[in-house]
Amino acid sequence: SSPRGRMNRWHQVTQRFPDDKLAHAALADNAASVASAENDSVALKLAVGTYEMLLATATSSDERNALSTALTTLKKWSF
């Protein structure tokens, strides 16, 4: 039930299923939540890196726009 626990579980899922984009998106979302709630720079770095990986493999303009918006927002954060 904890955000950090969810982030850790999604990290495990992405390691087991590295091609699962939905799992990576869930990991990035949960890492961003942890970063925000706990001012955690490591979680922020994980979120940004995961979103960047998803952006590199995005196939539609809607995906690219959503990921670019998320990255722009996260890259403005500092702790």
Short description:
It is built from four helices and no strands.
Question: Helical proportion?
Answer: over 70%
Q: Report Rg.
A: 12 Å
Note the beta-strand portion. under 5%
Kindly report the average pLDDT value: 96
Distance between the termini: 25 Å
Sketch the major β-sheet.
none
Low-confidence spans: none
Quaternary status: single chain
Secondary structure tally: strands: 0
Instruction: Give the helix tally.
Output: 4
Q: Tell me, briefly, the overall form.
A: flat
Q: Could you state the order of secondary-structure elements as H and E? A: HHHH
Broad structural category: mainly alpha
Q: How would you explain this protein's 3D organization?
A:
With 79 residues, this protein is mostly helical. The chain contains four helices and no strands. The longest helix is centred in the middle third of the chain and has 18 residues, at 21-38. The N and C termini lie far apart (25 Å).
Q: What order do the helices and strands come in, and which of them pair?
A:
Blueprint lengths: L2 H14 L4 H18 L2 H17 L3 H15 L4
Helix pairs in contact: 1-2, 2-3, 3-4
Keywords:
single chain, 79 residues, mainly alpha, 4 helices, 81% helix, 0% strand
